[in-house]
Design a protein that fits this description.
Blueprint (H helix, E strand, L loop, with lengths): L9 H6 L34 E12 L4 E7 L2 E7 L5 H17 L5 E5 L3 H12 L3 E6 L29 H19 L9 E10 L35 E3 L10 E10 L1 H14 L3 E4 L15 E4 L5 H4 L5 E11 L7 E5 L4 E6 L2 E6 L14 H12 L4
Parallel strand pairs: 3-10, 4-5, 4-10, 5-9, 6-12
Antiparallel strand pairs: 1-11, 2-3, 6-8, 7-8, 11-14, 12-13, 13-14
Helix pairs in contact: 2-3, 2-4, 3-5
């Protein structure tokens, strides 16, 4: 393994710049191709650098998110939950899809139940459209489950099963994804960098055109998911297949891709600050039965309780999908993501640490939120083995 692929001297770049006097003009002929990307900084992947472990339950619904309204307990209730692993990614577009249902209640003051990704974003969309919002919640960031997300823009992550991805449903999903994407582009370059674009590397032991063995997929209960991401090809940078020697990883096959990501902690603070600055209120409230909706002063209620809706509403259409992440000490010089195909391994550097997600064979339908440190240690060790 060539160490120069990881570490390179900046003077090598400077040495290739033309030195021109004021009377000289550089050669106008453009180079034949872009220069190769700069060398990658190696990741310090070891168990002793794990500083935090988290488990969250993603709210998967085979039918996709529930976005519908009903009259109950004397209230106009809009249900907005069940986004699987795509809550942050689809939040803005999904909230805009729910907005006409919220407006149909005819009330200027509304209540939002939940302060996670969907609740906060729905509250902000309502505010930006002239409504007054009060959030009722048991937890607020950083205690909410959404704080434990990895932070990669993944609008198709466990969003529905293939059988429910009808043409009409796919068009609605695409509208949500494009609307969210456009909003996130407006957040680029802000202080604390809540949204960034990052390069990443998709790694594989076998050629990419070969299917993975059955053992590399989820458990037997995991459904088939639709291939939706191709609908967004015009706004997604193309991946590049790398030849041997063009990457430093100890695998046979690699692709380089570019993807949008979120620094969850700073992004949540941005949403909270904007919500409060616009006159929003947050009230601590624990909901154990939907009858409590009837006791709220607002007449329009937006239920954004995520996985909590399974117990609160008895909605068994929500299936838990367990997700565990380890957070390594930050390495600002590591600015690329990694996905190891067939090994259930994902790494994303953030400002608050390097996220390492370890997916288990029995995550689908698993509501166990106990931390399995051995699982994350094994994932970090698999990650370390990719580097020389």
């Amino acid at each position: 393994m060539k160490r120069r692929l990881f570490l390179g001297a900046g003077t090598a770049v400077l040495a290739n710049l033309p030195m021109c006097s004021p009377a000289q003009t550089p050669d106008p002929t453009p180079p034949a191709a872009f220069a190769p990307p700069r060398p990658l900084a190696p990741l310090r992947a070891s168990a002793d650098r794990i500083m935090d472990l988290n488990v969250c339950l993603r709210p998967f619904r085979a039918q996709g998110p529930r976005i519908e309204s009903e009259q109950r307990y004397g209230k106009h209730i809009v249900h907005h939950y069940g986004h699987g692993g795509s809550g942050w990614s689809l939040s803005w577009g999904s909230a805009k899809l729910a907005l006409p249902l919220i407006r149909a209640g005819g009330h200027q003051q509304i209540a939002v139940i939940g302060c996670g990704a969907i609740g906060l974003t729905t509250a902000r969309v309502a505010q930006m459209n002239g409504l007054k919002v009060r959030i009722y919640c048991k937890e607020r960031p950083p205690e909410v489950a959404s704080s434990k997300a990895t932070g990669m823009w993944s609008p198709d992550s466990r969003i529905c099963s293939s059988e429910h991805a009808t043409p009409a449903w796919t068009r609605a999903w695409e509208a949500m994804a494009r609307s969210s994407f456009k909003t996130y582009q407006s957040l680029l370059g802000l202080a604390e960098q809540p949204v960034e674009w990052r390069d990443g590397y998709l790694l594989s032991d076998i050629p990419f055109d070969q299917p993975l063995p059955a053992s590399a997929h989820g458990g037997d209960d995991e459904p088939d998911y639709p291939n939706l991401i191709g609908e967004l090809d015009d706004i997604r940078p193309k991946s590049v297949l790398l030849r041997p020697g063009e990457h430093p990883f100890r695998v046979a096959h690699a692709k380089r891709f570019t993807q949008m990501s979120f620094n969850i902690s700073s992004y949540q603070r941005l949403l909270m600050d904007d919500f409060l600055r616009a006159g929003g209120e947050i009230v601590h409230e624990v909901f154990e039965h939907p009858r409590q909706f009837g006791g709220l002063r607002e007449r329009t209620i937006v239920n954004c309780t995520g996985y909590g809706a399974r117990a609160l509403l008895g909605d068994k259409s929500i299936i838990p999908v367990r997700g565990q992440t380890a957070r390594l000490l930050p390495q600002i010089e590591v600015d690329y993501a990694l996905i190891y195909r067939g090994h259930n391994l994902f790494m994303l550097p953030r400002r608050d640490g390097v996220l390492v997600q370890a997916q288990g064979e029995h995550d689908f339908g698993n509501e166990d939120t106990r931390i399995d440190r051995a699982q994350s240690v094994a994932a970090v060790e698999r990650l370390a083995a990719l580097f020389s």
